[in-house]
Design goal:
Helix 1 packs across helix 2. The chain is an alpha/beta fold and about 180 residues long. The structure holds inosinic acid and magnesium ion (MG).
Length: about 180
């Protein structure tokens, strides 16, 4: 499979992703029985994961979406490491929040998000992530995890290369140099 100038090979097939997501949804259904959780999805990458997960969630639940801008350059002021659009305290306070993210890499993004949400006083706050690059962020607590992956560049199922590939049904990894 080719996107722009790079070749990719399948890492996780669509069927495996779907099976795993059904299992995660079952666990969520059990854990949140009698509750009314709010799924807070981080755009853009987590949209396919959320869409499929939601199909198997059998609870009265609500959905909100947030977009994050990371300021990773060293020249940026440290007082404004990120910006979260579209979140008010009233939405979070006293709610059971499940944050939905595509992939945890260094863990910096999600750490900031969880910290930010914690300050808005949710009743509970958990994290669902499809993928985790475990060798890089071993300390991030993921309550509902799809797959552990290696330290490789991935695309597909929400993940992009140069904005492309988010609509693919499988997750792909970058092909070796010799196959590019
Ligand atoms: P972190 O702060 O390093 O954990 O950044 C995580 C974010 O980086 C994810 O939400 C993705 O948007 C992006 N990301 C991390 N790894 C990959 C990858 O392999 N392919 C595409 N995007 C990635
Ligand atoms: Mg993301």
């Amino acid at each position: 499979m080719k996107l722009l100038d790079k070749r990719f090979t399948t890492l996780i097939a669509a069927e495996s992703i779907q099976t795993r997501i059904q299992t995660l949804a079952k666990t969520i259904n059990t854990d949140y029985k009698g509750k009314n959780p709010l799924f807070l999805t981080i755009l853009n990458g987590a949209f396919p994961f959320l869409a499929d997960l939601a199909k198997y969630v059998d609870l009265p639940c609500e959905f909100e979406f947030v977009k994050i801008s990371s300021y990773k350059g060293e020249t940026q002021a440290k007082t404004l490491p990120f910006m979260m659009l579209g979140i008010e305290q009233a939405l979070i306070q006293d709610r059971d929040i499940i944050v939905v993210e595509d992939i945890i890499d260094t863990g910096k993004t999600i750490e900031m998000v969880m910290h930010y949400l914690e300050a808005k006083k949710p009743r509970s706050l958990k994290l669902a992530a499809l993928l985790h690059k475990s060798s890089i962020a071993p300390n991030v607590k993921i309550d509902y995890l799809g797959f552990e992956v290696g330290d490789e560049f991935l695309v597909g199922y929400g993940l992009d290369y140069g904005g492309l590939g988010r609509n693919l049904q499988d997750v792909y990894k970058l092909a070796p140099e010799t196959e590019q």
